[in-house]
From TrEMBL:
PANTHER family in the record: OLFACTORY RECEPTOR (PTHR26452)
Gene name, Swiss-Prot/TrEMBL: LOC102388061
Keyword vocabulary terms for this entry: Cell membrane, G-protein coupled receptor, Membrane, Olfaction, Receptor, Sensory transduction, Transducer, Transmembrane, Transmembrane helix
Name used for this protein in its record: Olfactory receptor
CDD domains (alphabetical): 7tmA_OR13-like
Transmembrane segments annotated in the record for this chain: 30-55, 62-82, 102-124, 144-166, 201-230, 242-264, 276-296
Source organism: Alligator sinensis (Chinese alligator)
Compartments where located: Cell membrane
Length: 313
């Protein structure tokens, strides 16, 4: 029976049941503790990064301006999923209302799309810093950086609004079990009893434009960076040039490894259990690790952290 006919014979779903991440009820307490620790690490670490960049003048540079925005994106990404997930771990019945589900979908899709474009902008910044150091201040001026970041957030917001709006137009009148631990697009589309062709087209376009485009541009940037570094004669100069982009390269590798595995692949290879674990990687583990990656080998960030410690205790 066509989806449209099914919609007319059923009552519209008002809430969804969330399957959750783990199937072992006796381990829920342990999982709650681990996830809460990671969430606190992500929030505190990224908040500290933002405060350090905001109040430490030596960090008022384009690179750290982008890093501060990345920290905000990571906070939004973790906060869109983890609070509800932690609440459900402590409840026997794991439910979420239809409206809250759409809000969560929007809140999750926003940082995801924004981060893809932001990492591309950060790759361009590192390309200019290594390949055109004498023109760096001119090219990456304050107005240019503000314009880039504004465009990044605008693209992420528009992308998220489109997916949320199209999801609201669908009918959900049959099974209401979301086979995931939060409201994400693929599991929701699987529950719809109305045609989802337009939603699938927009997801595909987002994957191609944001996902593949955001993946290829950093690769091109780092290809040019590597060629530029190889031309440097002194080993000290090569190490210095590589150190300016090594942290960002690690972040890009971690993020895109998870994203490509989850989204940029055939639907037929979709594996619920594996995909849920990979989702934890980019919604919680990566946001918790990013502050460490950007601060461990950076003297200026460590100095800024030390100045902030008396105020954050």
């Amino acid at each position: 029976m066509p989806k449209g006919m099914e919609a007319s014979n059923h009552t519209r779903v008002s809430e969804f049941i969330i399957q959750g991440l783990f199937d072992q009820p006796y381990l829920q307490g342990m999982f709650f503790g681990v996830l809460l620790c990671l969430y606190v690490m992500a929030i505190k670490g990224n908040s500290l990064i933002i405060l350090a960049i905001l109040f430490h003048p030596p960090l008022h540079t384009p690179m750290y301006f982008f890093i501060a925005n990345l920290a905000m994106v990571d906070i939004l990404c973790s906060s869109s999923v983890l609070p509800k997930m932690l609440q459900n771990l402590m409840q026997e019945k794991k439910t979420i209302s239809f409206n809250d589900c759409i809000v969560q979908l929007f809140a999750f899709t926003l940082p995801m799309g924004t981060e893809v474009v932001l990492l591309t902008a950060m790759s361009f910044d590192r390309y200019v810093a290594v390949c055109h150091p004498l023109r760096y201040v001119t090219i990456m001026s304050k107005p240019v950086c503000i314009m880039l970041v504004t465009g990044v957030w605008a693209i992420g917001t528009i992308n998220s609004l489109v997916h949320a709006f199209l999801m609201v137009q669908l009918d959900f009148c049959g099974p209401n079990l979301i086979q995931h631990f939060f409201c994400e697009i693929p599991p929701l589309l699987a529950l719809s009893c109305s045609p989802t062709h337009l939603n699938e087209i927009m997801v595909f376009m987002a994957d191609i434009c944001l996902g593949m485009g955001g993946f290829l541009l950093p690769i091109i940037s780092y290809g040019l960076i590597i060629l530029s570094i190889l031309k440097i004669k002194s080993s000290k100069g090569k190490r210095k040039a590589f150190s300016t982009c090594s942290a960002h390269l690690v972040v890009v590798t971690l993020y895109y490894s998870a994203i490509i595995y989850t989204y940029i692949r055939p639907t037929s290879s979709y594996s619920l259990k594996k995909d849920k674990l990979v989702t934890v990687l980019y919604t919680l583990v990566t946001p918790a690790l990013n502050p460490l990656i950007y601060s461990l080998r950076n003297k200026e960030v460590k100095v800024a952290f030390m100045k902030l410690l008396p105020f954050t205790r």
